[in-house]
Amino acid sequence: MGKGNQKNILITGGAGFIGSHVVRRFVENYQDYHIFNLDALTYAGNLENLKDIEDHNNYTFIKGDITNDDFLTNLFSENEFDGVIHLAAESHVDRSISDPLSFVKTNVLGTVNLLNQSVKMAKKNPDFRFYHVSTDEVYGALGDTGFFTESTPYSPNSPYSASKASSDHFVRAYGETYGLPFVVSNCSNNYGPNHFPEKLIPLFINNIINNKPLPVYGDGNYTRDWLYVKDHARAIDLVFHEGINGETYNIGGFNEWKNIDLVRLLCKLMDKKLGRKEGASEELIAFVKDRPGHDLRYAIDATKINKELGWSPSVTFEQGLELTIEWYFENKEWLEHVTSGDYKEYYKKQYQ
Ligand code: NAD
Ligand code: DAU
């Protein structure tokens, strides 16, 4: 492996929501790359996300856990990688509140395991680069005004964001201490096809279809900055290829929505799609107990990636939401598969 002009790229978490869009993009656009998708297939990992590309010659799936150091040592001694794009993580804030340790294990320990292997790989291969995909939640919460920039101090408020902040710090520390070539990006809330229905938008799409209550936390006046997942995958492609070593890039949608306004828009679009009378789905809205430590507002200033790498979102929120809703209607089987079994237990525990 790693011979001639072919580049071997290891993408972790490629069976998850964002990872699957990144894997597809790289497999389809870079015939001279071999893409290794390393994923433990937790509840959030799903090979159905990648059915359309699973037979491509330049793609290999590897089932494995980044918390298993022996496994990673073997993987890195058997293959020469030119780059690692690291997305594998526990990603849901609510789960981090009930089970913080899993987040420490995967997001901190797992990342440090990968960094240790990457330092050795970078010594053998001077073109090697480690790309850490992170979140805007590391910056904490904004008030009614202002934006997160790359120099905003870290102030994570949930076990999830604390674990991601910690992993970001380790990546930077490995750059300083061991000279590891790295880039980091911190992105706002993604939405789109293949999003697991524990997160706001796919959960509410699924509940509207099934005429179930829409559990809005608190008063619904929390703000998120939404980005279509394929625009994030395109940004990751750009940062991986053109980002400057040691730099961080904020990625966001320039698209802030209060949860309650977003939910009302979603209800309106879903009523149209389902042929229900306007206002029918809004009746499902139920204000429920708030999430502890709930961050009031996230908003990204994405000027740096826009100016330096020429990136900006390609779809409006309304277009992206229409595409997303369309995808869930065309992939009812996917939704049925991921909402059977363990999901039912999770839902009961979280919402009843
Ligand atoms: P996801 O939960 O949908 O997918 C995570 C993937 O990682 C799954 O396929 C899972 O099987 C895999 N995984 C988990 N633990 C693993 C382990 N120990 N070893 C190997 N694989 C493991 O997450 P996502 O929403 O696609 O997020 C991907 C990355 O992007 C995460 O690092 C997340 O912090 C970051 N991020 C997400 C968002 C968002 O809005 N979803 C925004 C910014 C950044
Ligand atoms: O900002 C980036 C982050 O966005 C990512 O790093 C995380 O991996 C991702 O999960 C997401 O975190 P959020 O906590 O913002 O996403 P979530 O979809 O869980 O919630 C969005 C908002 O909706 C938030 O204010 C909480 C609220 N919410 C969520 C759920 C699941 C509800 O009101 N009801 C719900 O049932």
UniProtKB/TrEMBL annotation:
CDD domains reported for this sequence: dTDP_GD_SDR_e
A single MF term (Gene Ontology): dTDP-glucose 4,6-dehydratase activity
Family designation: Belongs to the NAD(P)-dependent epimerase/dehydratase family. dTDP-glucose dehydratase subfamily.
Name the record gives this protein: dTDP-glucose 4,6-dehydratase
Cofactor(s) required for function per UniProt: NAD(+)
Enzyme class at the top of the EC tree: lyase
Pfam families reported for this sequence: GDP_Man_Dehyd
InterPro entries: dTDP_Gluc_deHydtase, NAD(P)-bd_dom, NAD(P)-bd_dom_sf
Superkingdom of origin organism: Bacteria
Organism: [Muricauda] lutisoli
NCBIfam families named in the record: dTDP_gluc_dehyt
NAD(P)-binding domain segment(s): 10-322
PANTHER family with a match to the protein in the record: DTDP-D-GLUCOSE 4,6-DEHYDRATASE-RELATED
Catalytic activity: dTDP-alpha-D-glucose = dTDP-4-dehydro-6-deoxy-alpha-D-glucose + H2O
Enzyme Commission number(s) from the entry: 4.2.1.46
Keywords: Lyase, NAD
